[in-house]
Design brief:
It contains 3 helices and 22 strands. With 452 residues, it is mainly beta. The longest helix is centred in the last third of the chain and has 6 residues, at 351-356. It starts with a strand and ends with a strand.
Length: 452
C-alpha cells in the first residue's frame, strides 16, 4: 500500500486584474481585446499531510543491560526522534494565474496558473560524551528481532547524531474554459478541460559519528540519505461557476485530474572509518543503494471556493479555501530497506558489531546483520523480494505493532531527557523543528530543545 498526500489550502488571499466590466454588463459586448486579458496573484496558507517516520534515534537509562540498550520493545527504551509525523504544519506560498477570453462576451478562453509552497523542515541533533546512551534502532535481518546500533554508551563510545527531513511542493496547470450554462441562479457555469502538473519532493538524512573511548581507538562516521520525488502529469476535467451580486462575486470550482504519477526513490549511504570511506551507512547499504523509478495511475481531486469584491472597474480582491487530494505518493518514511546478512565492512573492521557487543571492541570484521525493513503504526513498509520487482509488488515484512511500540517518555520526565538519566550523564541534544513538528513533542526529545 502506498501513502496518500493530502493538501489543504485553508486561506488564499488574492488580487486580480479583471476586464473593466462584469460579465452581464451591456458594455461587455464592445469590450476591446485588451480587456479580454486577466491576471491574478494570491498568497497561500497551506497545510500538507506530513511524512510518518519510524523510530530513528533512541535512548535507554544508565544501567540498562548492553544487549537492551536502545532496542525497541525493552523497558526504558525511549524514542528521541522518529515514530512520529513530520512536516505537517502550516506553510506559506504563492500562486499566480493569467487568462485570455477569445470572445467579447467571455464565454470561452484559456488560463494558466502556477503555485509553490515554502519548504518545510524538521531538524534534530543529539550528542553524548559517553555517560548517556544514544542508539539507532533497526530490525536484524538474520534474527528478525529488534536491535540497535550504539552511537554513545558508557565506557565504550561517545558520539552524536543529526537528522533532518525537508519537504517541497509545487504545481502548475493549463485549462480551456467554455461556458455551458448561464442563468439567473448561478450567472454562469463553465466546463474545464486541461493539463495538471504536481511535484512533491522529500529528503531525509541521518548522520552519525562514533568515537571509541577505549583502545584500539577508532572514529566512525556514517550517513544515510533517502530522497523521494513524485511528478504527476494528468488530464484535468471539471466545472466552474460564478455568482454576482452587486460588487460581490462568488466563484467555485470542482475538478479531478487523472494521469500518471512518476515516483523516484533514491537511496545513498557512506561510511568513513579513520578517514577511509566506503559505500553504505546503517540503513542505506550496498544492497539497497541506488535509484528506482515507477509509474502508477493516480487521481487528484480538487475543490475550491472564493469570494471577491470589486474595488475598482479593473481590480478585485478575494479570499477562499481549497482542498486537494493526491493518491499513490511515496515518502521517505516508506523507503525500502532491503535485507542483507553481510553489509560492507570498512578496512577489515566492524565497529558496527563491536559497539553492539562491549566485550569485542577490537573484534575484526565478520558477518554482521543489517536491516530488513522499517515498520510504521498504520502500514507495513514494502520490502523487495527481487531486485527487479516493481514498487507495487514489494511484500511487507514487519513485526507486530506490540513489538514496534517503544516506551514513551512519561509526562513527569518531560521536557528534558537528561532528567531521566543518572547523575553525571551528559546527553546534550537540540531539536529545531520547522512547521512540521508539534512544539509539545519537540520539548520532550532532547536535553536542550527549541522550537521555531
Amino acid at each position: 500500500m502506498k501513502k496518500l498526500l493530502l493538501a489543504s489550502l485553508c486561506l488564499a488571499v488574492g488580487l486580480a486584474r479583471v476586464p473593466a466590466m462584469a460579465a452581464d454588463s451591456a458594455a461587455d459586448a464592445t469590450a476591446s481585446a485588451a480587456n479580454r486579458f486577466w491576471a491574478e496573484a494570491e498568497y497561500l496558507r497551506w497545510t500538507v499531510k506530513g511524512d510518518k517516520l519510524p523510530a530513528l534515534v533512541t535512548t535507554s537509562p544508565p544501567g540498562t543491560p548492553p544487549a537492551q540498550r536502545g532496542v525497541l520493545g525493552f523497558p526504558g527504551t525511549a524514542v528521541l526522534f522518529g515514530d512520529s509525523t513530520v512536516n505537517d504544519g502550516w506553510r506559506s506560498g504563492g500562486r499566480a494565474g493569467a487568462g485570455f477570453w477569445f470572445d467579447d462576451r467571455r464565454t470561452f478562453g484559456i488560463e494558466t496558473s502556477v503555485f509553490q509552497l515554502g519548504d518545510a523542515a524538521t531538524n534534530f541533533r543529539a550528542s553524548s560524551d559517553g555517560n548517556s546512551i544514544l542508539a539507532r534502532p533497526f530490525l536484524d535481518a538474520t534474527t528478525t528481532r529488534q536491535d540497535a546500533l550504539l552511537i554513545a554508551s558508557p565506557g565504550l563510545l561517545s558520539g552524536q547524531i543529526t537528522a533532518n527531513e525537508t519537504s517541497h511542493f509545487l504545481g502548475a496547470g493549463l485549462l480551456y474554459r467554455r461556458e455551458i450554462c448561464a442563468c439567473r441562479v448561478v450567472d454562469r457555469i463553465s466546463g474545464l478541460l486541461g493539463y495538471r502538473f504536481l511535484r512533491a519532493t522529500d529528503r531525509l538524512s541521518i548522520s552519525t559519528e562514533q568515537v571509541s573511548v577505549n583502545s584500539p581507538a577508532f572514529t566512525l562516521a556514517a550517513t544515510d540519505r533517502f530522497e523521494t520525488t513524485n511528478n504527476f502529469h494528468g488530464l484535468d476535467l471539471g466545472l466552474a461557476g460564478e455568482l454576482h451580486r452587486g460588487h460581490w462575486r462568488l466563484e467555485w470550482l470542482t475538478r479531478v485530474a487523472l494521469g500518471a504519477n512518476v515516483s523516484d526513490a533514491r537511496i545513498k549511504g557512506v561510511s568513513t572509518i579513520d578517514g577511509m570511506s566506503s559505500a553504505g551507512g546503517l540503513l542505506a547499504l550496498p544492497t539497497n543503494i541506488g535509484h528506482v523509478r515507477e509509474n502508477h495511475f493516480a487521481v487528484v481531486p480538487d475543490v475550491s471556493a472564493k469570494i471577491g469584491y470589486q474595488v475598482a472597474p479593473s481590480i478585485r480582491i478575494h479570499a477562499g479555501y481549497s482542498f486537494l487530494y493526491w493518491t499513490n505518493v511515496i515518502r521517505p518514511g516508506g523507503s525500502s530497506i532491503r535485507p542483507s546478512t553481510q553489509p560492507s565492512c570498512p578496512q577489515g573492521r566492524s565497529p558496527d558489531r563491536a559497539v553492539r557487543n562491549p566485550s569485542s571492541i577490537a573484534q575484526t570484521c565478520g558477518p554482521t546483520a543489517s536491516i530488513s525493513d522499517w515498520c510504521s503504526i498504520f502500514e507495513c513498509l514494502w520490502k523487495p523480494v527481487a531486485p527487479s520487482m516493481p514498487l507495487a509488488d514489494f511484500s511487507p515484512n514487519c513485526l507486530s505493532s506490540a513489538d514496534q511500540r517503544p516506551e514513551r517518555l512519561p509526562e513527569d520526565r518531560q521536557p528534558t531527557v537528561h532528567s531521566t538519566l543518572a547523575d553525571g550523564s551528559q546527553l546534550v541534544g537540540d531539536l529545531h523543528s520547522g512547521p512540521g513538528v508539534n512544539p509539545k513533542k519537540a520539548t520532550s526529545v532532547a536535553a536542550s530543545s527549541r522550537t521555531s
